[in-house]
Amino acid sequence: MSLREKKKQETRNRIFDVSGKLFKEKGFENTTVGEITKEAGIAKGTFFNYFPTKESLLFYFKKQKEELIFNIVETQMSLDVPAKEKIMNFFVLLAENYEKDKELTRLLFFEHKRLTMASSQRSGKKEHGHQRFIDILCDFLKEGMQNGEIRNEIDLKIASESLNAIYFHSLMIWLHSDNDDSFSRDISAKIDLLFEGIGE
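Below the sequence we write its predicted structure tokens.
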């Protein structure tokens, strides 16, 4: 990354960090672009160079999470470890990232969800984020099956959809709760249980 690009990234991150601080204090709807630029010490024009609208900050949040997922997947795929460990690492590392700032994660997650649902209703098009997540899990499981770690008769589609459902259901419960329970420990225990099974 060139020095120019590095400075641009630093400015973008500073705007996002300041916005997050204000969103937690005042709420997303009640925070204005003027307040963000004043707190960040930049002109409004600079803000709009990076984020065309205040709502663009929500999509930047999503982009950051997508980049995190890509980096985790790339790292885990390169490791010579069992599929279960790769899946566990994938979920736990994501959970730990969310745990760094639960309040901001909750706020941005639900604001983005509200915005995308409204957009989907207007356009009639659905988001495909969950399917990409399921595909990643299916790749992990397929590798495990090829290595003899997962039974051949397992339906990979059902298995990956089940893992996806467990993860996002657990995430929703954690985001809605006001306690300090560890999301990473919770999802780790559930993945252990899923791989061990509950039968005799």
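The chain has a mean pLDDT of 91.
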